[in-house]
Amino acid sequence: MSNSVFTHQSRVYYEDTDAGGIVYYANYLKFCERARTEWLRGMGMAQSTMLEQKQGFVIKSIKGNYISSAKLDDLLTVTCIPTKVGFTSLKIFQQVYNQRQELLFEFECSIAFLDMEKKKPAKMSNEAKAYIQKFIPEDVSKLEVKI
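The chain above was modelled as a monomer; its predicted structure follows.
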């Protein structure tokens, strides 16, 4: 266990916004997905490779809280903090901040690791579990979406 937090930066482009230059609510999920994808890539689990091996992660449940709005041209920092890992699943807490370190959105998701051919849970490798565990903070009790 560690206090290491994975972060990924994304710029808000025009395509991410509504007519008023505010990020469309569903796009926060996309920013979070991109951060999780890069976090997985860090452990050598590229989505494309997993799909070739007929394996992959799928979202089981989500909970989100919109706090403030991101705007056109903002530079967002998205965290990726696993809070629990099992043999076939994990739980991740994510937050989105703007360049002024203002919290805009927080998100919690449960993710299953699947054998895509059988459409059933599959066991993650010991290496993947070890990588995930090194990002789990000592005290996860404060990391949950309050809605």
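DSSP finds three helices and six strands in the chain.
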